[in-house]
Specification:
402 residues, alpha/beta, 7-stranded mixed sheet, 4-stranded mixed sheet, globular
Length: 402
């Protein structure tokens, strides 16, 4: 009889020749547990998804309550479904007045696709501008925004009319013109290894988009829901986008995404043609209920308020001569090492010791740290000790805080 691992390799489509192959049996809080009962601290929160940790009680309760009501009923936008309505209302209450209409989808990639279509429909233009070393999704439209083309070249031609600028380059803003439908940008760059905007770059970007009539789209798929120390990162820079992209940490572990704009913008999907953007499973009742519970828990608790203090504790503890640089934005850190080989060695050693880390798509010299926001000081200390031991090539720590 084939083992589960063998069946995984035989029947599940693979995305790399060397998957991690951890056989996860259950998850709780900060930890994943394999079939032998070994615990792994999830120091990347499932790549930014599990902001409240795995199986947060309030999220689980919301899912169970919704299970007793209904699951899928009709394609998105036709029926008045309480989980969707309550989630959209709660989201809009946290956002500037101009961001008052929510389109619920299944993922960050779909949020990007919806925003691209909306920008074309509203402006009547086709040109899109994105930053180099940014990731906005893997479908053909979203992938067209990606540069360099290492991950996309095999699938060309993709969408035409895409231009790329350097993040934080004010001179590059001149490329934004009356031909530009939208500029799609992360307020803090993710896959380049946690890069913040300099001085008033985002304000100048906002001004340029307004000047030429292009939409400004902020991709907060990774930065949203408290990761950087505020509910949304753009709040820290006094700049409001025309469209906001959300996903990952939004659903408490359930698949959901959204793009948010003004009603004036969104209504362009309702005519010429009708059904301008449609989705079958977008805003699924279970995912919407989980997302509402996640948002309410973040707002009612002090997890977001604790982010900066916890960030400082990580920075204090992570001191080692092998670390070339540390960049951080709240509970989101990039530890730059000398090479990808060094990063790979540390990642593998950390996993052996019970800590899951990773690298970045466009910066494989940096180690990714993005734990659930619920991580406690004692757990930060243990995680950092494992990372430092891994940098030294030391033995396995005997104490794993639960």
């Amino acid at each position: 009889m084939l083992t589960q691992r063998q069946l995984f390799l035989k029947h599940l489509a693979q995305t790399s020749p060397s998957p991690l192959l951890l056989e996860i049996e259950r998850a709780e809080g900060l930890f994943l547990y394999d079939r032998q009962g070994k615990a792994y601290m999830d120091l990347i929160a499932g790549i930014g998804v599990s902001s409240l940790g795995h199986r947060h009680p309030r999220v689980i309760a919301a899912i169970r309550e919704q299970l007793d009501c209904y699951l899928h009923t009709m394609v998105y936008g036709e029926y008045v479904l309480s989980p969707q309505v309550k989630l959209a209302q709660k989201l809009c209450e946290q956002l500037p007045e101009s961001l008052n209409s929510v389109y619920l989808v299944n993922s960050g990639t779909e949020a990007t696709e919806g925003a691209m279509k909306l920008a074309k429909r509203y402006t009547g233009r086709a040109e899109m501008i994105a930053c180099k070393n940014a990731y906005h999704g893997s479908t053909q439209g979203a992938a067209s925004l990606m540069w360099p083309t290492d991950f996309t070249q095999a699938y060309h031609p993709l969408l035409p009319g895409i231009k790329h600028i350097d993040f934080n380059c004010e001179k590059c803003l001149e490329k934004i013109s009356t031909h530009t439908a939208a500029v799609i940008i992360e307020p803090i760059q993710a896959e380049s290894g946690v890069n913040k905007p300099s001085s008033d770059y985002l304000r100048k970007l906002r001004a340029r988009c307004t000047e030429v009539g292009a939409l400004l789209v902020f991709d907060e798929i990774q930065t949203g829901f408290g990761r950087t120390g505020s509910l949304f990162a753009f709040e820290q820079y006094d700049v409001v986008p025309d469209v906001l992209l959300l996903a990952k940490g939004m659903g408490g572990g359930m698949p959901i995404g959204a793009f948010v704009a003004s009603q004036n913008l969104m209504e362009h999907f309702t005519h010429h043609p009708v059904l301008g953007h449609i989705t079958t499973f977008g805003g699924h009742p279970l995912s919407s209920a989980a997302a509402l519970a996640t948002l309410e828990t973040l707002l009612e608790g002090d997890w977001i308020q604790q982010v900066k203090e916890k960030e400082a504790w990580f920075l204090h503890l992570l001191q080692h001569p092998s670390i070339v640089a540390i960049r951080s934005a709240g509970l989101w850190l990039a530890l730059e090492l000398e090479s990808f080989d060094r990063v790979l060695q540390v990642v593998q050693t950390c996993i052996q010791k019970g800590v899951i880390t990773d690298w970045f798509l466009f910066n494989n010299r940096s180690l990714r740290i993005a734990p659930p926001l619920i991580i406690e000081k004692e757990q930060i200390e243990w995680a950092c000790s494992v990372i430092l031991e891994s940098l030294e090539g030391g033995g396995v720590s005997s104490f794993l805080p639960g």
